[in-house]
Amino acid sequence: MKNQETNQLPKIGILIFEGFIANEVIAPLDVFTKANEHKKPMFNVFLIAETNAPCVSEEGLTVIPNITIEDCPDLDVLVVPSSMNPDKQKQNQTLIDFIQRQDQKTDYIASHCAGAFLLGEAEVAEGKQIVTYCGGSETLQKEYPSLLVQDDQVNSVVSDGKIISSNGNLVSYLASLELLEKMAGTEQRKQVESELLIHKLYQNVH
Questions:
Q1: What is the pTM of this model?
Q2: Other beta carbons less than 10 A from residue 113's beta carbon
Q3: Which CATH number fits the domain 2-186, given the four candidates 3.90.1300.10, 3.30.43.10, 3.40.50.880, 3.30.470.30?
C-alpha cells in the first residue's frame, strides 16, 4: 500500500553518472524527501543512471541508482547535476536524448553548476534565463547563444518558467528549496528549512 501511495506522488528524478558532484544530488534528495506536517511524503524521489551499476561521485561517494534511463517513467521534475568533466556528459547522447524526452513531460527541469551545459546541449532551455558555476557564464553563453545566461557572480539561483538553475555545490540546497516552494508552498519550505537547520548556518561558531 505504501509503495502504491508513493507511486501516485509527483515524480522527481535525479540524474547521476560517474563523477557527479555529491552536493548537487544530495541537496534535492534532502529537500524533497522530507515529509509534510502530517508526516506524509510529498514526492516520489529517485536516482536515475544509464545502467544499474553504482556511480562514484567526484568525492568518492558510491551511489546505487534506483532506476535506469531506459526504464524511467515520465517525470514531473528532472534534476541535472554536474561533474568536474561536463564535456563527457555533453558528449553522451544517451543522457542528452533522455533530457530531451523528459522535457516533453516535466513541469520543471533543474540544473546545478555545469548541468546547465547539458540543458544547453539538449536544447531544452532556449530563450530562458539560466545560470551556471561561478566563472562559467561566458563559456556557457558562447557555446549556447540561444540561452539567456545570467552573471554567475551576481546570481546564485535563477528561475525562468520551467527551468531553475544554480551555481551548484551547496547552492543546490537554495535552488531545491526554491523549487519546493513553487511545488508545495511556503509553509512546506519553512518546515524543511527548519528540519535542515538552515538558520544555524547564520549563527556564530565558537
A1: 0.94
A2: 28
A3: 3.40.50.880
